[in-house]
Design goal:
Helix content is 35%, strand content 27%. The strands form five sheets. An eleven-stranded mixed sheet has the order 3-7-8-14-11-10-9-22-23-21-20, with helices on both faces. It is built from 14 helices and 23 strands.
Length: 476
Amino acid sequence: MAEKKVEAITSMEEDFAQWYTDVVVKADLTGYTSVKGFMVLKPAGYAIWELIQKQLDERFKATGVENVYLPLLIPEGLLQKEKDHVEGFAPEVAWVTHGGLNELPEKLCVRPTSETLFCDFYQKDITSYRDLPKVYNQWCSVVRWEKETRPFLRSREFLWQEGHTAHATAEEAEERTIQMLNVYADFCEQVLAIPVIKGQKTEKEKFAGAVATYTIEALMHDGKALQSGTSHNFGDGFARAFGVQYTDKNNTLQYVHQTSWGMTTRLIGAVIMVHGDDNGLKLPPKVAPVQVMIVPIQQKKEGVLEKAEELRLKLSSVARVKVDATDKSPGFKFAECEMRGIPLRVEVGPRDIENNQCVVVRRDTGEKLTVALDDLQDTVAGLLDTIQSDMLEKARQHRDANTHTAKNWDEFKDIIENKQGFIKAMWCGETECEENIKAETGATTRCMPFEQEHIADTCVCCGKPAKKMVYFGRAY
């Protein structure tokens, strides 16, 4: 077994939860605050979010999405208009009761999500079919008073984007719902190097107030599932509750059909748990704030720092690159690069300069390459692409190796007790069965995948005729 470079990290095999916390702290991604469950996103953590935001936003805009910003606070009366929705969020809501020293005539909710605000806005903004569709998104933070918190995965305030669209027909709304789910799935695979399962949530697991919720589910290194993005079709339920109507081409009043979709800073947690190892983070190049760190060896010797800076300028056209010119030892710098998940490390010292070469080290595999300085630019560009695709492939192999099939209840229980990962099994469609499975095994329905398979004729739990193949798993 390879010697651990950074002793401060708990081994992931020993205690995965502690390993995760250690990585978040040691890689300097977040800090704790005076308010329990609220975190500081430090520069290293926020820079990852900025790259996620930038690349997601580009993909949204390519589908016609426009960004807006709606208020932070929601009047209680507005929240009460959609019964299922308010019941779904009631336990997690934070309330503002005073403005300055005066008690407010009506309590204000700190947004846990913004459906009600968008409905109120659309009700005033939409009058005719010519006003449709409205395809809006906002980047903001939301507050949900979670009992148990963990950095990125579950905090009381988190950053996210929430898309909210309004359409003339049910077909258009469904099309947009699926379109955005596909944007999310492609983003996770191509940018975060995380393979996902696409499917529909069950009635029990769907969003409060939605007609249908679609999800992408990812598998973490420890075999637990993580819901990584959701897209909801609201039908005309919210529109009816809030009176969001338009006049169609026949001059008849119709209700709009709405969608909502979101991704959060939880994705950073997913990147840590899918790719990380006992030396720390492993960042896919597309979300690595620093893609290449140049480490000068014997940097006090004449010409070494100058050469490092020359290489930085040369590489800056193909990568986000920095020079570590601090007075720490090379060994410490190497360990720090690994901890922070920097995809490539370039080592250059007096002897390398003499031979017109340098050493390039891959974070994902640890492979060391001796590269001529004249070829460095092309080599680095090629390696970053290779690392990106190799990390996706490795994550896909891990997911597939930890996806199991259960034809009956005994097989299901055996897998949940002795293995880890996703379990594919048939289900009768009854919520009671779903609840029994969770009560007995701790596994929940992750999704009914779009790509259905026929595993057996009967439900894995109750033996009644099966309706759907479902992915089950223990989850974050």
